[in-house]
Amino acid sequence: MNQIRAEINIVSDYLLQDKPVIIPTDTIYGFSCLPNAFKAIEKIISLKKRDQNKPFLLLDTNIARIKSLLTEDSFSLSFIDQIVAKKLWPGPLTIIAEKNKNINLKFLKNFQTVGIRYPKNDYLKAIIKKTSRPILSTSINLSGEKEITNLHTIKERYNNKIDFITKIEIQRTISSVIVLLSAKEKKVKLLRKTGTDYEKKLIIFLNNKGYI
Question: pTM higher than 0.90 for the full model?
Fold first, then answer.
């Protein structure tokens, strides 16, 4: 526990200095930085050999702040309230919805949508609380390749290439379900399935609401 608490402080300090890190999320390991840390974002893009025009995910635990990232359409905001009430969020679910055009996030400037996940684990919650802002995240891999989920392999590949790599082992790695919200049609499209029990519960909810 003391090791985790110490790492949370270290990671938070690196993030607040606008440096990129590799940390565990509630699903898999991820490259992370703060949303307006332009040099850190460029470093992550370089490490992944990633197209500059591909968007990143945001992790956040503050529902009001999450809603502020989205357009004020009743469907998207209501959907968030519903999945929180049904205890489907926080959880391994990434929501893609139309972004608020007034948000000042450079990495989203060429996109109409934003991807957001509300993580469940205490480690991420603590970091987000200490930095008082969402965390930008993307999987550990070269663009187009399969995610690296083994911490030893991650350290071998990136040990001298990034400011900090976690020491925390994830016991079980999974990818998140990804859904796209259509406010106009009031529908939800499943973009990535995982075959998990969580996904089954989500689909039951979506079917019951007539969203799919």
Answer: yes
